[in-house]
Input
Amino acid sequence: MVNKSFNIQSEQSQPSSATELWSKKGIMTVTAIVIFIFFFLPVLRLVWQSFQYNGQLSVAHYAKILSEAFTWNMLVNTMWIVIGSTALSLLLGVFFAWLMAYTDFRGKKWINIFILLPFIIPSYIVTIAWTQFVKDIPFGTFNLYSLGGITFLLGISHFPLVYLFTVNVLKRIPRELEWAVLASGGGKWKAFSVVTVPLALPGIIGGGMIAFLSNLDNFGIPAFLGIPANITVLSTAIFQEVIGFGENAFARAATLSVLLAFIALIVTGLQWLLLKKSKATETSYVDEKPRIFLGKWRLSTEIVVWSIVLLFSVMPLFSMVKTSLVKTYGLPLSWETLTLFNFNFLLYDYNKVGNALQTSTLLALGTAIICTIVGTAIAYIRIRQATMFSKLIEMIIAIPYTLPGIVLALAMILAWMEPIPGWNPGLYGSIWILLIAYVTRFMLLQVRGSSTAILQVSVDLEEAAHIAGASQFVKWRTILLPLFLPGIISGTILVILTTLTELTVSSLLWSSGAETIGVLIYNFEQAGYTTYSTAFSVIVLLYMAGLAGILYSIILIIRRKEQL
Output
């Protein structure tokens, strides 16, 4: 009787298990198809286009492009600028990281904010600010519209990346290892060269490679400074090919994009290996206490460092504001030339400014909503079910973020202009292709942010809820979501602020009536309306500050509710 009962129950449970299995397989299949279409297929279309010549597979475009003197001159420009700016980023980043991690420098919390400003502010606004600042310097004639100028601005825009990675690594190096060297008769320099440098080197080089990729990817600075000076790099060459509509423009641009992507992917692979090694040698304990005391040199060091930081992050902004307040570009600021006309014109008379703010805000919020929902779901599966399938999904999602933005933009054009031969859905030339491109590019940011939040919550809580009989909905609503929310929102804020002022992808995908903030500032500057571009940049910075304040206030409110 018991056996019979057991058999009946087993038979009844089989359809349920089979249904659950097929449902799981169906979800996995649909997920794989969606990820393939949106994240991988555009890249394949791009590569395919680069090998198309007269309707046949060929390397003719590569042979032609690589045989041109212009190409090699452009590649030399790219390498000089990227390598030079990365070296500057490393020099500044490591110096400030060592100072903040090891010395008794005062006001570290405040100076951290100013160190990060050149990276937080969009690079094209930093460029506009510096072009105005250089003109106000009473001595010297440093020309920003040159290889040196582009290299300098890229370097100071991305040194915060090196700083963030290096300061983290330095603080995690156990000071006991340094004491051991000192106790065995070695001096401070010996401890620094034998312990500090070898243990910090993987993190420093990893940060340098991230700076290298960011310099390679950057479009705003080379476009604002290089195009007027006839200095071409890979990113601006792709842009000029597409907007030039010359013979085989898309095929040539695709070929250049593959070359640029190839460089980026090699560096990304090296960076991943070095960061993995860095994590293997560091400890989880973060030592915030100073290890080196500056003594009588502390005040002079603080004055010099604050002067450098304010020069890089604040002084150029004052010059930009000053330019935005004059009646005509080139006039000195005085009571006679002071005016608010530029702001009044942009905010009340020129409707494209309001439209650009609205378009960028809607795109940022739409991207954030989609990335928050989908990215958190992917992160949860990746952390809680670390299967080969989930790892593969994360790798595919990482591809669009790893690729330079200008490469992804061209891939989006080729993929969505005619996704199926003979069928044009009308996405290219509309705001929707921007939304697709933003979601594709910035999904990884949310996945990483949500993953960090999920890792901080023990799986035991979920198991306890399951044992108590809680459904999936109840488990998420009452337990998981409240615990995950602050970390998830941090990732969402990063997506919003990154998308809001994006220029590189937008430069190829924008359309009339759907201009974004970055595109409109670029158009002002290229047309010679410097007073308008500076005034709009000031408006954007104030808008970003207000939006960031609102978003972070939401996080504080959520955290206070958790504490109560």
